[in-house]
């Protein structure tokens, strides 16, 4: 826990009464990060398909096969961007995902 003075020095604002500094954690703006990734991927020639829910991912002979609401996709690589409420789409990944609450005390 840090008091208001120490927190103001840490974040540059005197609007808060105190807080917790977690030096091994970080944060980012998810919208800016997502749009930045999309811009970079597009510049690199990646085909981006939006609103295509994935219902199944399988891997065979070094390739991934995805079933989506807009058809089937075959790829050498897959980027799984998810959250703590992901279904059992990829069981081996699901084991390491869990929801964490975020709280602000005013």
Automatic annotation (TrEMBL):
Transmembrane regions listed in the UniProt entry: none
Designated name of the protein: FAD dependent oxidoreductase domain-containing protein
Residue ranges of every copy of the FAD dependent oxidoreductase domain listed in the record: 13-105
Database matches in Pfam families: DAO
InterPro entries in the record: FAD-dep_OxRdtase, FAD/NAD-bd_sf
């Amino acid at each position: 826990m840090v008091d208001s003075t120490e927190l103001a020095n840490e974040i540059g604002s005197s609007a808060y009464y105190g807080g917790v500094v977690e030096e091994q954690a970080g944060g980012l703006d998810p919208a800016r990060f997502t749009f930045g990734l999309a811009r970079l991927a597009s510049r690199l020639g990646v085909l981006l398909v939006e609103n295509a829910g994935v219902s199944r991912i399988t891997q065979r002979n070094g390739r991934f096969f995805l079933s989506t609401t807009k058809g089937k996709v075959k790829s050498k690589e897959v980027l799984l961007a998810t959250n703590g409420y992901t279904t059992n789409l990829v069981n081996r990944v699901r084991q390491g995902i869990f929801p964490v609450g975020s709280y602000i005390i005013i």
